[in-house]
Amino acid sequence: MKTKFLLPLLLLLTALRAAWVLTHELAPSEAYYWMCSHRLAAGYFDGPAGTAFLVRAFGEDFEIARLFWPALGFFCSCTAWLAVRKIYDATVAGWSVVFLNALPVFNMASIEVGPLMPALVSVLAGLVFARLAWEGRRWAWLGAGLFFGVSLLFRYESVLVPAGLVAGALFSPRHRTALPGLLAMAACCVLALLPSLLWNAALEWIPVAGGTWKTAWEFRWVPFFVSLAGIAMAFSVPVVLAVLLGLWFLIRDTRRHGRAAFILAACGMAWAWAIYVLLRGGDAVAAGLFGIVPLAAFAISSMRKSPLAIPVGSFVAAVALLTSGYVLWSGGRVSWKAVADQVRASARDLPAAEGDGFFIAEDANQAAVLGYYLPQEGKYPTVFVPESPDLSSQFGLWPSYADFVESDRVADEYFQEQKGVNPFIGRNAIYLGHDLPQTIKGAFQDVQPLRKVAAPGGRDLTIYLCLGYQTLPL
């Protein structure tokens, strides 16, 4: 694609994405980052703290922050063009950008607040400098390290790109002399990871613990197919098949072409990790996204003289675009704001009790989106998740209705060891969820189903009246 046609296309796509953001309500995951931005920390259960700080930089107007993500999509496309242009030429770079903008995961990341888009922009900017360093400009390793370090403030998986470049350089006799530059790049990455590492260490690595050495090599059929369906929806089925085929030819051509060696170093470790995580039934989308642009550039360059290039490329792009459309429209017509309005209205059915009623949702995303539409001031979240002995989400670190606070009241020495009271004892609550967990049944004197509400995604949730909170029995 000629460069003069690419810029108007990117501007049009950015305008369409901004229009989508302005005409659609926020997703539960976006509401979660909004909550995190009001409770800043060095790390979070779902990853580094960069997204929360970036949202916080826009102040209290979350809609302005949401509009920044389509702009990030535009900058990401421009950075992808620069990265591929440094490896091949403007034609391959242009078609690589078109391919990137057809991917469902890229389109979703361009309209929803989250860590993928800022991390991808930083990774691609790091690749621009890494290519300069690969060509002999050793000072560029430091520039690459700075951008890779920024990416690590958003997603841990982005470390796979600089790690692959270090491995590729060390295995290449020509680049082994660049050890000081490689060390500088590695130092930038370590410094960027340090706050998150310290935060995870303080929690005994619970947020990032993935099992034991034995379970790390277990293959599970059901999670594998769930993960496979997820990556197929994120990239589309033809793209997944093309990735596997492209990796095979890339490995084959590495010894014959210097550019292939650089591309393998840039994307090989990311896709190797994505395949490993996929086989274990985990989320392989982020790792795959960080390695997709160099691999796509290699495939486009290899096929552009083939008579099959146009029909095959058109088919892959068309299916990716259709998958993007399906993903964008699959949320349904029901809004979370309407659900929040019904939850608020249900609070009127709570009988009078000492203290105000409170809200509980079945998971963190539901609690976040309901909390966005049911705002209140104070140290407590507007909507809680059910109390649990397990530390499984960021809500477990925030004040909860199950917490005891210090008090001057004399403690009963037979039943408790500390002076403390629970300010929610005796209060009533509204619970929203698919089923009623035991942690709700056991914590209230009486629980009654009130009504069913339609939720996004075509599923029904039930609103329960929870009367007389008394904490869970020991």
| Total DSSP E strands | 9
Q: What does the overall shape look like? A: elongated
Rounded mean pLDDT is 87
Q: What order do the helices and strands follow? A: HHEEHHHHHHHHHHHHHHEHEEEEHEE
**Strand-pairing-aware structural class:** alpha/beta
The helix tally amounts to 18
Distance between the termini: 67 Å
Number of separate domains: 2
Helix content: 55-70%
- Spatially, the strands of the biggest sheet line up as 4-3-7-9-8
Rg from Cα: 25 Å
- Unreliable runs, pLDDT <50, ≥5 residues? none
- Strand percentage, roughly? 5-15%
State the major sheet.
5 strands, mixed
Short structural summary:
This protein is an alpha/beta fold.
Structure commentary:
- With 474 residues, the protein is of the alpha/beta class.
- It has two domains: 327 residues, no CATH class; 134 residues, no CATH class.
- It is built from 18 helices and nine strands.
- A hairpin with a 2-residue loop joins strand 1 and strand 2.
- Helix 4 runs antiparallel to helix 6 and helix 11 packs across helix 12.
- The longest helix has 26 residues.
